[in-house]
Amino acid sequence: MIIVMSGRAAEADIQAVVERIAAAGLSAHVSRGSERTVIGAVGEERGLEPAMFEALAGVERALRVVGEYRIVSRESQPEDSVVRIGGCEFGGRAPAWLAGCGPARDAAELEAVARCVQEAGGGLMFCGGTRRHVSPYHYQVLGVPELEALRDITSRFGLAAAAELSDARLLEVHLELQMDGLLITPDSLRNVELLRETGRTNKPVILQRDNRTSLSGWLLAAECVAAGGNHQIVLCECGREGDSPGLDVGELAWLRRETHLPVIAAPVAAAGPALSLALSRAALAAGASGLLLQTDRQGRVASDSLASLLSRL
After folding, report:
1. Distance (Å, rounded) from C-alpha 36 to C-alpha 61?
2. Where in the numbering of this chain does the DAHP synthase ferredoxin-like domain appear (predicted)?
3. Which of 33, 91, 113, 174 is positioned for an S-S bond with 79, CB 3.0–4.6 A?
4. What pLDDT is attached to residue 303?
């Protein structure tokens, strides 16, 4: 159930609603917007009626949310969320971007990528985020040495860092190294324990998705993180896998209507470097809040430099 407070509601009114929710055995999630506060009641709603809350002072309306994802729904928070990772704001007025590379890069390659991101005027670099880990010989989990190298290099170049997290046992390492963001790949969207653990942190989380996961399954993964108390979530669309890769901008537009979370797109992951510019423009036109751009081993996006690509958006 979602309880929308009026713009004139006092803090005591908000607290009274939270206490009523707790008395019913549910958890309350409070989202404060610039004009209104929205409170979500999460748990078994049997026996709860909107009238129980609409009679309280400061309540504008109460409504049931039909979908399983409640905290991340547009119904629970009509205003767009803004998630800040380092100096980048996703969901703000201007599109934001981050760039980086896949895992198992050596220090020289990481440094080349970091220099490219810095020269393009960026402030956030990621490492990891490959589409599918099909072979044990071609995939390496980002372990402690790789994370330490990423943190060292991004610090030297004045960049914030987001790193792939695929194993909950490495979460403490990410926190100790003060990574600015956590990157969850499409393969990990069904790893409920990993999602719950990231939900207990205060680190921004980028949830990547491809066509192997439905849109509702994606939002449920985001709900799993948000239910732990971490509402700093960015959704990243990686497009289709298969013989005809691409990006469905209609799905991006639907997501903008369905959730208040910022949605970004990964055009290089969706269709390769050659189509990255066209898909970037299409994604932004459909309402994407920004882009995730994957570079080659020299820190470039295909034949275009990162700076050239961004200047043409």
Report:
1. 12
2. 1-65
3. 33
4. 43
Residues 6+ apart with CB under 8 A from 239: 210, 211, 245, 246, 247, 248, 265, 266, 267, 269, 270, 271, 279
Task: Encode pLDDT of 60-79 as tens digits.
Answer: 988 877 667 878 988 878 88
Rounded CA-CA distance 101/282 in Å is 23
The pTM (predicted TM-score) of the whole model is 0.82
pLDDT of 308 reads 63
Query: What gap in Å lies between CA 210 and CA 269, rounded to an integer?
Result: 9
Query: Which residues face 126 on adjacent strands?
Result: 100, 162
CA separation for the pair 182, 185 (Å, rounded)? 10
State pLDDT tens for residues 159-205.
999 999 999 999 999 999 999 999 999 989 999 999 999 998 999 99
Please state, as a whole number, how many other Cβ atoms lie within 10 Å of the Cβ of residue 61: 12
Kindly report the CATH class assigned to 2-63: alpha beta
Between the alpha carbon of residue 228 and those of residues 87, 97, 240, 289, the distances in Å are 25, 27, 30, 24
Residues of the chain with pLDDT under 50: 302-303, 305
> 40: which strand partners?
2, 29
Domain map (residue ranges) of the chain = 2-63, 83-311
Q: How open is the CA angle 259-199-261, to the nearest 5 degrees?
A: 15
Helices (H) and strands (E) in the chain, counts: 11, 14
Helix spans in the chain (H): 11-23, 50-54, 107-119, 144-156, 171-176, 192-199, 215-227, 249-258, 267-271, 276-285, 306-311
